[in-house]
């Protein structure tokens, strides 16, 4: 290698190392620099300044923002300071010597190989930067690098300076600045890739990827380990619907379900007005159409018709054209208005005739804590005290006052503190419903009890059934396996349900028939599960599930009802829950009067607890409760409640049957009963196993406690 006219001629093989030399002015240090191979003790930091045309790894940490000229790397050197007190430290001006501006320094190793080429700039020695493909030099131990780096886009990112030598000898980067700079760099890189995304047209993989992107409207690429998905905008030429599609419906209407499914398949946004939920909108429907039949579809303010008109137009192929024609204009004020959140229908609610008496008693009775049967009873009053107040205020006899007290007890305004009697004169203690210890824990209590005239339990149950059915139709999948709890929590239907359950405070459950009671509590249980998941979440696991079922309560008919007491106390005739030794209702409990006399094992296929392995959520009518329960059992077993392995002679059953085996009977009896609810294939396999006289093994499936959302 030699220098001719200031140009360094390199032999073959050195070109790949990026070694070059140019003319420059500068001063050479006394100590000749040996880059990366030197044995000197370096005390000053090393600064690397990549050239503008070099590619630098974007993952490099940040540093200072200063930048030298010509893209060279500057290495500041200092002679090793001697610790000997007899040795004088040379001044920095004495450690350097000036050389000719036209000279070029080169350091040769023992084998005459050139190690570094150092042109001079501004009178000081400079070191040529190595080619960017080579590994970057590492600082010696104890030396912290604070060199700035420059990315391809020109942004300079500074590396945080290390602590002083007295504190630490390692690099301690500024974490906050580091992440901030990396975030800015990543954002800039993504923007750059989005704006200048280029591929080789001859690449078959790219052409396939491009074709798929055009078809799906999605472009995907990776940046620094991140997967970026870009949704392409629709063509401007596509016509957009400016109007509004509305239709009136009812809960559990097959034609309404067909219309809803049709609009969802087409991706059309629509407004549904369920007149079972918004009852006052039925008058509007009659005024617009002349009848109360549903469904009735409106395109803006124009009546389109019902399901027959929709099917006719769809079969003729003119639906899209008619849709564009009728919805090409913006919706006018004459179209059916969407339901508004937070506004209830105005209904006349009659005040209970006993409310005036209750208000007087609340003000004049000495309500206080008392000692009774070695227990402190809070917020109570004596029966004789209430009789005295009634006699003085209403100017009636003692017998009439006692009769008024019994009426208040039957309407659940007051209760005996231990549930021993309705009302009697004397030293018996009573308390108002709002003072019961369980009331603040109930999720349908909102600061005060409902003093309105109690509605019949049948009416409340029917309204609950309609509202919850409307919620499922709007916020659950068609197969009811998945429920959108977040969407339900924000809906107007759910807000109305929360208001409705306050009517349960003093409802009279004793007036319900057996079928009405069965449907009422099945529906109440499933509605409470949805409410509980929204309010407290759905625990995953049998241990947390026990508290979930016991702690979420409603006030119903003056008593507290949890999910556990409804299932095991009412529907299962006060039987112990699985792995429990205590019955839900003890002796003397008033709720025993509501318990169903006989257990129907099919209730277990109508109760949904919000998990994936439970039966699907549904709501029942009192008129068809038996057939609806059989349908629920058939759907459950045909889905995943039972599997038959003919080779191993094994039947895989849901774990629900094991937990409540006392309700189903012996295992072979269970299998014979299940045949009636299986499809033809499973029924044939199970019949073959039971009929050949051989042993049949029963294995219970694992239960999935995850939420069905």
Automatic annotation (TrEMBL):
Pfam families: DEP, DUF547, Glutaredoxin. InterPro entries: DEP_dom, DUF547, Glutaredoxin, Thioredoxin-like_sf, WH-like_DNA-bd_sf, WH_DNA-bd_sf. Residues 361-434 form the DEP domain. PROSITE patterns: DEP, GLUTAREDOXIN_2. Gene3D superfamilies: Glutaredoxin, Winged helix-like DNA-binding domain superfamily/Winged helix DNA-binding domain. CDD domains: DEP, GRX_DEP. Residues 41-70, 131-151 are annotated as: Disordered. It comes from the Eukaryota. This is DEP domain-containing protein. It comes from Salix suchowensis.
């Amino acid at each position: 290698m030699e220098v001719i006219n200031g140009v360094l001629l390199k032999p073959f093989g050195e070109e790949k190392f990026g070694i070059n030399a140019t003319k420059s002015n500068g001063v050479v240090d006394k100590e000749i620099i040996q880059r990366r191979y030197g044995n000197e003790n370096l005390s000053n930091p090393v600064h690397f300044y990549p050239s503008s045309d070099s590619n630098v790894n974007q993952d490099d940490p940040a540093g200072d923002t200063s930048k030298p000229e010509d893209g060279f790397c500057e290495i500041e050197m200092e002679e090793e300071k001697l610790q000997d007190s007899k040795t004088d430290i040379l001044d920095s001006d004495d450690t350097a010597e000036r050389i000719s501006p036209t000279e070029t320094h080169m350091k040769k190793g023992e084998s005459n190989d050139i190690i570094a080429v150092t042109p001079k700039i501004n009178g000081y020695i400079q070191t040529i930067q190595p080619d960017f493909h080579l590994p970057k030099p590492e600082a010696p131990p104890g030396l912290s690098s604070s060199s700035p780096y420059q990315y391809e886009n020109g942004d300079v990112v500074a590396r945080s300076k290390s602590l002083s030598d007295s504190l630490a000898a390692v690099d301690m980067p500024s974490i906050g600045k580091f992440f901030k700079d990396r975030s800015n760099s990543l954002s800039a890189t993504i923007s750059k890739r989005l704006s200048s995304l280029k591929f080789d047209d001859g690449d078959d993989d790219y052409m396939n990827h491009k074709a798929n992107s055009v078809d799906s409207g999605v472009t995907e690429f990776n940046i620094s380990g991140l997967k970026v998905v870009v949704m392409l905008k629709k063509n401007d030429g596509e016509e957009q619907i400016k109007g509004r599609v509305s239709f009136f419906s009812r809960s559990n209407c097959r034609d309404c379900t067909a219309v809803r499914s049709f609009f969802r398949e087409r991706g059309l946004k629509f407004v549904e007005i369920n007149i079972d939920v918004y009852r006052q909108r039925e008058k509007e429907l009659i005024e617009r159409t002349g009848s109360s039949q549903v469904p009735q579809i409106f395109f803006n303010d124009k009546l389109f018709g019902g399901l027959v008109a929709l099917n006719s137009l769809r079969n003729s192929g003119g639906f899209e054209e008619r849709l564009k024609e009728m919805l090409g204009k913006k919706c006018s004020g004459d179209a059916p208005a969407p339901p508004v959140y937070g506004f209830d229908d105005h209904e006349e609610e009659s005040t209970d005739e006993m409310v005036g008496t209750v208000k007087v008693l609340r003000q004049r009775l000495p309500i206080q804590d008392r000692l009774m049967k070695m227990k402190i009873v809070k917020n109570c009053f004596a029966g004789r005290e209430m009789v005295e107040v009634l006699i003085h205020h209403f100017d009636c006899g003692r017998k009439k006052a006692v009769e008024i007290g019994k009426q208040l007890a039957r309407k659940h305004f007051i209760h005996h503190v231990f549930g021993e009697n309705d009302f009697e004169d004397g030293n018996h203690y009573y308390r108002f419903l709002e003072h019961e210890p369980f009331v603040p824990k109930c999720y349908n209590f909102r600061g005060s009890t409902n003093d309105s005239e109690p509605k019949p339990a049948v009416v409340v149950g029917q309204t609950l059934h309609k509202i919850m059915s409307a919620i499922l139709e709007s916020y659950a999948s068609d197969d009811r396996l998945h429920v959108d709890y977040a969407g339900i929590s924000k809906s107007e239907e759910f807000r109305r349900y929360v208001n409705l359950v306050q009517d349960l405070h003093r409802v009279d459950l004793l007036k319900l028939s057996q079928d009405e009671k069965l449907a009422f509590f099945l529906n109440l249980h499933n509605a409470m599960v949805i409410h509980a998941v929204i309010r407290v979440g759905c625990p995953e696991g049998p241990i947390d599930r026990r508290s979930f079922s016991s702690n979420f309560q409603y006030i119903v008919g003056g008593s507290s009802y949890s999910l556990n007491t409804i299932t095991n106390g009412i529907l299962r005739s006060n039987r112990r829950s699985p792995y429990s030794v205590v019955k839900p209702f003890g002796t003397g409990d008033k709720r025993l009067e509501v318990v169903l006399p006989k257990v129907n094992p099919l209730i277990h296929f109508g109760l949904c607890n919000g998990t994936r392995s439970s039966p699907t959520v549904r709501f029942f009518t009192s008129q068809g409760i038996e057939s609806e329960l059989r349908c629920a059992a058939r759907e459950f077993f045909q889905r995943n409640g039972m599997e038959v392995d003919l080779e191993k002679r094994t039947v895989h059953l849901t774990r629900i049957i094991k937990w409540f085996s006392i309700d189903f009977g012996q295992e072979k009896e269970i299998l014979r009963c299940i045949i009636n609810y299986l499809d033809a294939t499973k029924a044939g396999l199970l019949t073959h196993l039971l009929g050949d006289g051989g042993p049949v093994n029963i294995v219970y499936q694992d239960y999935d406690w995850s939420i069905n959302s």
